[in-house]
Amino acid sequence: MSKKPDSYEGELAAIMNALAESVAEASNEEVLEDVRVHGEDPTEAERQTKDVLLNTLKLHGQRRLHEAQKQYDVRIADMRAKTYQLPVSGEERRQLLELVLSQQSAVRSVLTAQYREFTSLSDNDVESFLRQLQELGFLDELSTTEGNTK
What we know:
About 70% of the residues lie in helices and about 0% in strands.
């Protein structure tokens, strides 16, 4: 009768726990002797062990950061794939951005902190801001005007 994969994982966990327990119970001298018997330099083994433990701690600490980065990447990909209803010409997009900024002081304060002169924004920057504002629902709040849809 074949064993289920779960039972192998259980057996492996039991072996690893027993191994960890035997190392924890061994004296420092016994561990050093065991390292030497296997032809390894104790100082190098110590360095490698510390590196593994530090890297594991670092990865564990950054797992939420990595998950957030994945979610951000998915969201950005969704935004890039989405079709937005924005004015066609660059001048009309600038006018729409100016309208949003005149009606939404909170948005204006965020953008003015980064760009004092909106005339220095490229057409791509203006379009990018409008896409982001539409994602956030700011364009939905505008009344429909000639040349743009909500």
